[in-house]
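Narrative summary of target 7.
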Amino acid sequence: MNAAIRCTVAALTLALFGMPQTASAQDYPTRSVKIVVPFGAGGPADVFARVLAQHLSDDLKQPFVVEDRPGAGSIIGTDAVAKSAPDGYTLLVMSNTHTTNESLIPNKPFELMRDFVPVAPINYSDLIMVVHPSVPAKTLAEFIALAKKEQGKLNYASSGAGTPYHMAGELFKAMSGTDIVHVPHKASGEARNSVIGGHVQMMFDAVPTMLPNVIAGQVRALATTGKTRGALTPDIPTLAEAGVPGYEATIWLGMLAPKGTPQAIVDKLNAEIRRIVAKPAVKEAWQKQGASPLVMTPVEFDAYLRQDIKKWADVVKRSGAKVQ
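Modeled conformation, tokenized:
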């Protein structure tokens, strides 16, 4: 009899402890959710995070608030999220800066696949390679020839070590056999202004943010970085077709949560983000900005992250890229 009572009490205890987790996952969110963007205001991560936050707020009936926490190549904001409670109320918008930093900056206070769980990808954009109009190269082939003739004398700008702009430049150097000096900046806006002002000769930048400057004649576009020509840049060749066969580099965004976040909350967020990026109005607006939705399950996104970490570890090794 005593044994039966003990079993009954144990079963009731398990049920009681299990109820809050199930209820919280079903009711989530019940209060404001913070989305940390570890990059500067006005960049692609900030811009698209705010679109996502607005739709999440509307659909889930609780505020999703974007907080920009740039610094140290995304490490400051990312580390803050890694140390947050794993309850779904602090989320991280990440980019391929994070997968690059796994090999480029090995002594970080966190590890991506150890301290976070993948929630969902968001979108991706091709990059565009531009030069200041004073550079005497009208095509990619002419620029490569110039860079080889002037080894170590040309510069390229980026928004910091490990960013997609930096690694696109290192990949270009490795595949084209050129030596171009990396000039890191604190944010993409600063890097962009350096090229527009003629202080730095070249830059890889996101199509949505740099294309207006190309149209205004402030910079000259030489190529884009996707597999095929973009819908917004049909007259600009890809690097692969213009002189660097096999070249491909994009900037993509995704969402992570601290390790230990309940799977039910992760799945709910994934489903909501998939629903948002599939909305015709969102897809149309992003297409006009040169961005395409990425759709994956948490398991698929996990595999995608691991493959991207491996890809950029190889580029870091081949290029000898280092944090400056």
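The CA atoms of residues 160 and 302 lie 25 Å apart.
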